[in-house]
Design a protein that fits this description.
single chain; alpha/beta; 6-stranded parallel sheet; 13 strands; 40% helix; globular
């Protein structure tokens, strides 16, 4: 199979794209790929490191504060369509895949106008602007949440799940003793994404002493930029603080209760691994999509949500104690997460791609 893939800007777009590539490679080892991304976002480093041929185009999102900068943005958009048409024609793919981010717009539109088969994938509960626009330019649409389907053309949309979740299932769990923890105590894991959250970390510091008499153990992953400031404070013996952990799913498999943001990739792993979670959606993302993502789990009683603005006093400690000491509730959350699961998401997407190529 010859495949053009485009996804950019954030790991929430890039890692599902890589999961789809990995599945195609697994099923058809002789497949060839061309990844088209932006010239200045994280995909320019991540993708070439995987040995995947990468071409960059200069693209920017529209700037609401500095309107004059949008003249350059518009010029780049027009130029990007020309570049994408040239790249796609030269590569001559069997299919062109877009997995989110504004860079996918010229790629998918150009491919469709050239007569190639196209597929897009949406990770969030409410589709982003790019995917809503691209819906009319694609042959097939995969969504991570059933609630997304009402925003997209029903005749070509299917529930695919998020392929990142499949990768999480295949990861080997780390042992608690390897982490310096007790084998027989419950574990609470806290992580606010790879960069962490300064505001949530400040709140955790303010309640740190409340953890010292608890029967459970806690791992807090601060993010590299917040670690030095965090460890200046007194840390209880049952709390372990790390700046970063490569392959967080290794710990998630040993976790009794997770405290996390509500990014699409994180939720896909929570669902795939049946991890009871307290979600604290980031209020700083476009269209408040983390809150909306979290709401999808809340209405199914598969998670609990605390908004960041409500992180006051002992609210988090009280909620952790309430849940982790209630085995019936933990079990119910796990069972409800199972109901949201789409098994073998990447394989399902691969099989659908084969159908539309035929």
């Amino acid at each position: 199979m010859r495949v053009v893939v485009s996804a950019g800007g954030t790991g929430g777009h890039i890692y599902p794209a890589l999961a789809i590539i990995d599945k195609i490679k697994e099923k058809e080892p002789n497949s060839e790929f061309l990844y088209i991304g932006t010239h200045n976002r994280m995909e320019k480093d991540i993708v070439p490191e995987r040995g995947i041929p990468f071409k960059s185009i200069e693209m920017y999102g529209f700037n609401k504060r500095h309107l004059l900068k949008n003249f350059k943005t518009v010029a780049c958009i027009f130029r990007s369509f020309k570049e994408c048409k040239k790249l796609i024609k030269e590569f001559d793919p069997d299919i062109v895949i877009g997995v989110g981010g504004y860079v996918t717009v010229p790629v998918i539109v150009s491919a469709k106008k050239l007569g190639y088969k196209t597929f897009i994938h949406e990770q969030n509960s409410i589709p982003g602007k790019s995917n809503r626009y691209l819906a009319k330019y694609c042959d097939l649409i995969g969504v991570s949440f059933a609630s997304s389907m009402k925003y997209l053309p029903k005749e070509k949309t299917f529930l695919s799940g998020n392929p990142c979740g499949e990768n999480a299932v295949n990861v080997h769990a780390v042992s608690k003793t390897e982490l310096g923890l007790s084998a027989n105590k419950k574990l609470v894991l806290m992580a606010m994404g790879s960069l962490g959250s300064a505001s949530v970390n400040r709140y955790l510091i303010s309640i740190m002493d409340k953890f010292k008499d608890k029967d459970y153990e806690v791992i807090i992953i601060t993010g590299k930029g917040n670690y030095d400031e965090f460890i200046k404070n007194k840390i209880p013996d049952n709390v372990k603080v790390l700046p970063f952990y490569e392959g967080l799913t290794k710990i998630m498999k040993r976790t009794d209760l997770f405290v996390s943001r509500a990014g699409a990739s994180t939720l896909s792993e929570i669902i795939a691994l049946d991890v009871p979670t307290i979600l604290i959606p980031s209020p700083f993302v476009a269209n408040n999509h983390q809150y909306i993502n979290a709401s999808d789990l809340i209405k199914n009683e598969a998670a609990i949500m605390i908004e960041e603005k409500d992180l006051k006093g002992d609210v988090l400690i009280e909620k952790i104690d309430e849940v982790i000491n209630d085995d019936i509730r933990l079990h119910k959350m796990k069972e409800n997460l199972k109901k949201l699961k789409v098994p073998d998401s990447a394989l399902l997407i691969y099989n659908k791609l084969k159908e539309i190529i035929k």
